[in-house]
């Protein structure tokens, strides 16, 4: 088992604009994203210079029936809320290029 301290865990549900805060969204609706996948989060984190990897066999406890998976990011000591906002903005940039 890897040490958990320097790593931050991000679930796709944190970014989902269709969810309410009580259902698991962590960002304000202004920064939330309609369709976000594990690969979107990973790609955005890597573009920002973080080490990120997907862990497939985990389920978010508030919606255990949803697709499994989470992204683990080495944030290099930054706060989770700051990293989450950076990643959300980068996902928006990547989705606008498609």
Q: Can you describe what's shown?
A:
By secondary structure, this protein is of the alpha+beta class. It has one domain (7-97): Signal recognition particle, SRP19-like subunit (Phenylalanyl-tRNA Synthetase, Chain B, domain 1, 2-Layer Sandwich). Helix content is 29%, strand content 14%. It contains two helices and three strands; from the N terminus they run βαββα. It has helices spanning 38-47, 80-97, and strands at residues 7-10, 51-55, 70-74. It has a three-stranded antiparallel sheet, with helices on one face. Helix 1 packs across helix 2. The longest helix is centred in the C-terminal third of the chain and has 18 residues, at 80-97. The N and C termini lie far apart (37 Å).
* Largest beta-sheet details: 3 strands, antiparallel
Q: From N to C, what is the helix and strand string?
A: EHEEH
What is the number of helical segments per DSSP (H or I, 4+ residues)?
Answer: 2
What is the architecture at the second tier of CATH?
2-Layer Sandwich
Structural class estimated from helices and strands: alpha+beta
Number of domains: 1
CATH class: Alpha Beta
What keywords describe this structure?
Phenylalanyl-tRNA Synthetase, Chain B, domain 1; 2 helices; 98 residues; alpha+beta
